[in-house]
Design brief:
Number of strands: 17
Largest sheet: 9 strands, mixed
Helix content: 10-25%
Order of helices and strands: EHHEEEEEEEEHEHEEEEHEEEH
Bound molecules: uracil
CATH superfamily of the largest domain: Pseudouridine synthase I, catalytic domain, N-terminal subdomain
Shape: elongated
CATH class of the largest domain: Alpha Beta
Number of helices: 6
Number of domains: 3
């Protein structure tokens, strides 16, 4: 038996937090009865209905997208902007694992496997992400140390990071910097650079755990194979 909000999220219907909202607003039925209690336990034989949809286990799909600029990381947008889901023709309810900003490019996983999505997004599992930023100016040694040790953003200290300056363009006063982090706070990379006085001009995520963008041009995607999915599960489960 599992807590109902976890089961709804694992079906890939929505996040666990959204499932809790749906529960308290009376949008969830179990075996035909409205259930509003968070943490209500359900088993494999129970029929769960959310907002009128009966949840059925669909085959899991895992997609690795090289997100282009100018695409929003959600499943739908009220301003009618193109979403990452629009780029991937699939008959499944895929949703993005984490978020890349509208103007950020690079590696994004989309899946209907809510369990893996939640594990990958949970800070406790410390999944490593490598971002490459083009920033205004040149980082001082002191700024590099501050970024690496942890820096206050929105009143909370970031955890340890790795910084590698890849290139410096003195003429245009810009630098290309690689930043390795394992958290996923909102606009984290931009805020970290901003905290040491540098504006991010361009941002790309190049790696997530062992995954890279090899072979994928901007806007292209591919399915993860079984080995890669297993390896992703191992990455998190070995860190428990
Ligand atoms: N950090 C940011 O600032 N933006 C992103 O899109 C991802 C990480």
């Amino acid at each position: 038996m599992e807590r109902i909000q976890k089961v709804i999220a694992n079906y890939g219907y929505c996040s666990r937090r959204r499932a809790e909202e749906l529960l308290v607003s009376g949008k969830v039925k179990v075996n035909g009865q409205v259930i509003t209690k968070l943490g209500f336990k359900v088993g494999t034989k129970d029929v769960i209905e959310v907002e009128g949809h009966i949840l059925e286990q669909e085959e899991k799909e895992y997609v690795l997208l090289n997100k282009p600029r100018g695409v929003i990381t959600t499943t739908s947008d009220d301003k009618n902007r193109k979403t990452v889901v629009d780029l991937i023709p699939s008959n499944k309810r895929l949703y993005p694992v984490g978020r890349l900003d509208y103007d950020t490019t690079g590696l994004l996983i989309l899946t209907n496997d809510g369990e893996l999505a939640n594990l990958l997004m949970h800070p406790k599992y410390k999944i490593e992400k490598i971002y490459v930023a083009k920033i205004k100016g040149i980082l001082s040694v002191a700024s590099i140390k501050m970024l690496e040790k942890g820096i206050l953003i929105d009143g909370v200290k970031t955890s340890k990071a790795k910084v590698k300056v890849r290139r410096i363009d003195k003429k245009n006063n810009t630098s290309i910097v690689e930043l390795t982090i394992h958290e996923g706070k909102n606009h984290q990379v931009k805020k970290m650079f901003s905290a040491v006085g540098h504006e991010v001009l361009k941002l790309k995520r190049e790696n997530l755990a062992f995954l890279t963008l090899a072979g994928l041009k901007s806007g292209e995607y591919r399915n993860l194979n079984k080995k890669e999915v297993k390896k992703l599960y191992n990455e998190v489960l070995n860190r428990k």
